[in-house]
Amino acid sequence: MENFLEKLMYSTRWIMAPIYLGLSLALLALGIKFFQEVFHIMPIILSMKEVELILVVLSLIDIALVGGLIVMVMFSGYENFVSRLDLEGNDDKLSWLGKLDSGSLKNKVAASIVAISSIHLLKVFMNTETIANDKIMWYLLMHITFVLSAFAMGYLDKVLRK
């Protein structure tokens, strides 16, 4: 009976597979939004102010960072918690596949969140005249919280590995 329960529990990891597959739909949605934004600015690019263009480019970078985060979570999560990807002999295999454990993945996710938050904060600072000071303070406080959390997670990981 114990052996059966252990095998059953172990096989439930496959419940995560459709979740990781669902992340690819989120990636597709981001891709659509990315190109929607690109096509939106093309006709007006010559009449845009430099600051407006920079804000759009920062939004595109934000989307790219979130997309990279999705790919990282999708593939390394699948490999860590469901099953190894059988990509031997495949020339375009990502070099980091199979090398990210769950601790490393958490640190990379935290670093990505800090980078995304930094870009969002930069967009806020470039647009301060339309944003209330109390909102700017909250954005800054949230960013500092993300930075401190990422630092604490990295430090704990370093301490635990020793």
Question: Which helices and strands, and how do they pair?
Answer:
Blueprint: H1 2-11, H2 16-41, H3 50-81, H4 102-126, H5 133-161
Textual characterization of the structure:
By secondary structure, the protein is mainly α. 75% of the residues lie in helices and 0% in strands. The chain is built from five helices and no strands. The longest helix is centred in the middle third of the chain and has 32 residues, at 50-81. The chain starts with a helix and ends with a helix.
Features:
mainly alpha; 75% helix; 162 residues
Terminal-residue CA separation? 39 Å
Helical stretch tally: 5
The tally of strands reads 0
User: What Rg do the Cα atoms give?
Assistant: 20 Å
Structural class: mainly alpha
- Principal-axes geometry comes out as globular
Strand content: under 5%
Q: Round the mean pLDDT to the nearest integer and report it.
A: 87
The profile of the biggest β sheet is: none
Quick take:
Helices cover 75% and strands 0% of the residues. By secondary structure, the protein is mainly α.
